[in-house]
């Protein structure tokens, strides 16, 4: 499903819609593959408004809504991403269209195996490196990541403390792409930051291809 290395960008829940629109437009022009709307505090109506607004600056099929399966289904965006407190993948599949993706956040091999069994289309695994968003929580590193990806039949996206310079470590561990939060959303120059990540992904693809 995920062929070339993917670059997923996740909203941080601290920016206004106007700020996210500007960020998303710049990131998409810099090579972002998918934008995750991860806004836990937003209502269904607000989340739908975000999807509609963002689809004016990037393709609808490149937008993923976190947790809100109802919004993903109603908007016909790329799909929904599920956390531990969300619906199970097989439950979300009852709502989403066949072509829409179901992603699942996992933090261990056992969680990943369960998500695959439940029908997830891709996994988001982290955090891999020390991350400001997870202070005091030890990173999982790339050893377990490599063990996990070797056992998975679906793509795994790495998350957490990934810089352009460390992108190759995540891909070498078997990931199909990376997910970035502050490295792009908080950057002074969004497009240049995105280009740096995209460049790292492209160099890996050329080296491996």
Low-confidence stretches: none
Percentage of residues in helical conformation: 40-55%
CATH class annotation: Alpha Beta
Distance between the termini: 17 Å
Strand content: 15-25%
Describe the largest sheet.
8 strands, parallel, barrel
Strand order of the largest sheet: 1-2-3-4-5-6-7-8
Number of domains: 1
CATH superfamily: Aldolase class I
The secondary structure category is alpha/beta
Average pLDDT: 94
What CATH architecture label applies? Alpha-Beta Barrel
Beta strands, count? 8
Task: Describe this structure in a few short sentences.
The protein has 209 residues and is of the alpha/beta class.
Q: Could you characterize the architecture of this molecule?
A:
By secondary structure, the chain is of the alpha/beta class. 41% of the residues lie in helices and 17% in strands. It has helices at 17-29, 44-54, 69-75, 89-93, 109-117, 141-151, 167-172, 182-185, 190-208; strands at residues 6-10, 34-37, 63-66, 79-82, 101-106, 122-126, 156-159, 177-180. An 8-stranded parallel β-barrel has the order 1-2-3-4-5-6-7-8, surrounded by 6 helices. Helix 5 (109-117) links the parallel strand 5 (101-106) and strand 6 (122-126). Helix 1 (17-29) packs parallel to helix 9 and helix 2 crosses helix 3. The protein is globular and about 40 Å long. The two termini are 17 Å apart.
């Amino acid at each position: 499903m995920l062929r070339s290395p993917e670059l997923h960008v996740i909203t941080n829940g601290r920016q206004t819609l106007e700020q996210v629109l500007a960020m998303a437009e710049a990131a998409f022009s810099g090579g972002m593959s998918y934008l995750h709307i991860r806004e836990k505090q937003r209502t269904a109506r607000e989340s739908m408004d975000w999807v509609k607004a963002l689809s004016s600056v990037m393709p609808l099929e490149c937008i993923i809504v976190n947790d809100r399966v109802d919004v993903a289904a109603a908007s016909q965006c790329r799909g929904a991403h599920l956390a531990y407190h969300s619906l199970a993948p097989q439950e979300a599949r009852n709502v989403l269209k066949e072509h829409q993706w179901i992603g699942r956040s996992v933090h261990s091999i056992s969680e990943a195996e369960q998500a695959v069994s439940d029908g997830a289309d891709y996994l988001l695994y982290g955090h891999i490196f020390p991350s400001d968003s997870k202070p005091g929580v030890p990173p999982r590193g790339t050893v377990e990541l490599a063990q996990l990806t070797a056992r998975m039949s679906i793509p795994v996206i790495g998350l957490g403390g990934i810089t352009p310079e460390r992108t190759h470590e995540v891909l070498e561990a078997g990931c199909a792409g990376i997910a970035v939060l502050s490295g792009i959303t908080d950057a002074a120059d969004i497009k240049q930051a995105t280009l740096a990540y995209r460049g790292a992904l492209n160099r890996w693809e050329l080296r491996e291809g």
